[in-house]
Design a protein that fits this description.
149 residues, mainly alpha, Zincin-like, 2 domains, 3-stranded mixed beta sheet, 3 helices
Length: 149
């Protein structure tokens, strides 16, 4: 099974190759070089700034222990139990429930959540997240202990 890092690398290389092929079709060798440069620049920009673009697009507001103590404490407790670094926590002021994570590494992670989830569904969401973490760990343990027949 391919790791996420390898899958992402293959996808990004495919995008650069596609830009190169399209550039070659329209401009020959110089078009291919321009397409490869544009594809590479686009990948670098997306890798470093995609999390910030998504947060800006949704007009997410970062919260801390003072502005949303119950919700921040919930995320902090879940992070501690899972053994993960504490992400930055954001709220999105929309009626449509949604939650997702962005970022590349421990220091860059963020977790924006829509206000409706916080107000109404936080206890249920916390239980589901805990169950998902436990289930993922169970699958990982089973995979390591399984003997092929």
């Amino acid at each position: 099974m391919l790791g996420n890092w390898l899958k992402t690398t293959i996808l990004m290389a495919g995008i650069v190759a596609l830009f190169g092929v399209v550039g070659a079709a329209f401009g020959g060798a110089n078009g291919m070089l321009l397409g490869l440069a544009l594809g590479g620049a686009m990948n670098i920009f997306a890798y470093w700034f995609s999390d910030k673009m998504v947060l800006c697009m949704y007009r997410a507001q970062e919260v801390d222990a003072a502005s949303a103590p119950q919700f921040y404490g919930l995320v902090q407790e879940l992070s501690r139990r899972a053994g993960l670094p504490m992400p930055r926590v954001y709220l999105i002021d929309e009626a449509q429930p949604n939650a997702f994570a962005t970022g590349r590494s421990g220091g860059e992670r963020s977790n924006p959540v829509v206000g409706l989830i916080v107000m109404i569904l936080a206890p249920i969401a916390a239980m589901l997240i805990q169950m998902a973490i436990a289930r993922a760990r169970e699958f990982e343990a089973d995979r390591g202990g399984a003997v092929p027949v």
